[in-house]
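Notebook p. 47: complex prediction with zinc ion.
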Amino acid sequence: MRIGAHVDSTDPLAEASAREADAVQFFLSDPQGWKAPKPREDAAQLRDAEVDVYVHAPYVINVATLNNRIRIPSRKLLLAHAGAAATVGAKGLVVHGGHVNAGDDLAVGFDNWRKTFAYAADSGGFEVPVLIENTAGGENACARRLDALARLWDAVGEYEVGFCLDTCHAHAGGEELLGLVDRVKAITGRIDLVHANNSKGGFDSGQDRHDNLGGGTIDPDLVVAVIRAAGAPVVVETPGGVDGQADDIAFLREQLGTERPAA
Ligand SMILES: [Zn+2]
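Predicted complex, structure tokens below:
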């Protein structure tokens, strides 16, 4: 089982080796900005690396919103990121499920997701799998609770869509981790990646505040159980830099009884 971390984008392979990670996730541009990703000088090294690469799309992307001035650039930026993610050999592009504004019809938000995949298909398709991630907060989210996730999958199910399960977001979003993987897979049919994070916020707090696996309000054994049930690669998005994340990775390897694959 591949276990890695979300790291700074300057030198992801160095960050991976500092954490003894065999997977790595990073941003290709400012996560709070709308700039298209620039070509990377280390694209060939990343493509050829033993380490599995995942890209996280910018947080500003919200393809669900009814606001044209956000939705249209979001679609374009997501497509651009999928292209750029392919150049670094990424196994997937993680993007948050998004939301509609208060008072707007969530059904339109789900249909906007469908249109996003239709738009991409018209442009030749996403060049890497798009992994929609569950989110922690908001009352108008497309992928916070599983009832919404089921409606989202009804809308996009005709396309090839992946799923990234974040344990912090699920717990803070109000979904019990016990048995969660089966409930998610009943909807999506798949989990492509697990974001293994503890949560500073309590159950159903709506707070997106990650903590190290041994801290926070989630029993770490539950995070391990989710990973085991999902059988998918894992990325920790936890605080504490190299030391904090290396400890979290080592903890997971110990609990899961997995060795780091020989390089
Ligand atoms: Zn996450």
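Notes: The chain has a mean pLDDT of 96. The pocket of zinc ion is lined by residues 133, 166, 195, 237 (CB under 6 Å).
Next step: compare against the earlier run before touching the bench.
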